[in-house]
Structures are given as structure tokens and as C-alpha cells.
Amino acid sequence: MGKSGDSRFLKKILTNAEIEFVKNSENPDAALWSLWACKEAAYKVIKKSFSEIAFIPRRWQVTFNKRKLTHSDGEVIIPGTDSVYIRLFFNSQYVHCIGSDHPATLDKLIWSVEALPHKTDNPSLFLRDCIRRKLADTFSLEFRDLEIRRKRENGELGTPRVYVAGKKTDIDISLSHDGRFVAYAYHL
Fold first, then answer.
1. Coil, strand or helix: which one is 7?
2. In the chain, which residues fall in CATH 3.90.470.20?
3. What is the pTM assigned to this prediction?
4. Which CATH architecture has domain 3-101?
């Protein structure tokens, strides 16, 4: 909270139009973190197609075109690549953004935000268990047969992958955790 008043920080991560949006918002902190969530979601999507892309949020423009009671649809315009289509969910507890390289895919994504249990000391493990349960239910699989792995690729951790009975699948997932919440998304 309060980071929306840090002009140096805003200039590092937002475009001039986004800075004005934050300043003119009824809740500047919520506006700031909503834009940040959109840019992070866009990075996760675009990184899968353009592995060499650098995350330069100051150059990425978030635009909203449809506002609804529970969410807003829009896109993140990334110079030199295609746009990423986003859906931002917001409430008094959190902001959450899902993204895709095709707008129609947003309606097909399965996603969830979960609060961490009070006694959890490993949010990543809790998150992996949450998505494994949901994947097992969705695909009628055994929970114990599902694994989520991340391998090192070019010196950094790659995107998380789903394995069933030790075999890599084509199930495309996204995982995140921050503060007291974890989130996941995938599509059929």
C-alpha cells in the first residue's frame, strides 16, 4: 500500500498514460497493482512464444476495452510482438489477471485464486497441490500421478510443466503466488 505515490517507481514500470490513470483513480494503489498484474500476465503469455523477450514494463501499454462488474477485458500492447489479451479480476482482497494470445481463449481458461492456510510455510507447494487437485478432477486423473516440474533452461527456471505418470503433457499452466494468495490458470 502507498506505492502509488512513489513517482520514481511509477516511471520505472508504467507508461505516461498509465501514470495518469493511477493518479486519477479513486483507489490509486488498486489501479497500480491492477496494471502490474496485467503486465505480469502478459509477460508469462508472450515469453512462451518469444523466449528471448525482455520484461520492460515501462514500454508495455495496458488498455481496457470492456468493463464489467467483476472484471475488465483489455490487452497489453508490447512493441515488436503481438498483443496479449487480458482479463483482470478485482475485489477488496486481491487483483488477478489471466491472459492469452487469442481473445476467445480467455473464456476457456480455468483459473482460481486461493488464500494460503495460516500455517503454510511453502506457498509454492500449496499452489502445486491446488492445481494438481483441479487437474485431477478436470481430466479424471489420479492426484498422485500428477507432478508439476520446472526445468532450468538457459540458466533460468523454465515455465512450469504438467507430468502425468512421469510423462510430460501439453497442458499449459500458469502459477503465481504473492502475499497470502496463490493463483493458477490453465485451459483445456
1. helix
2. 3-101
3. 0.88
4. Alpha-Beta Complex (3.90)
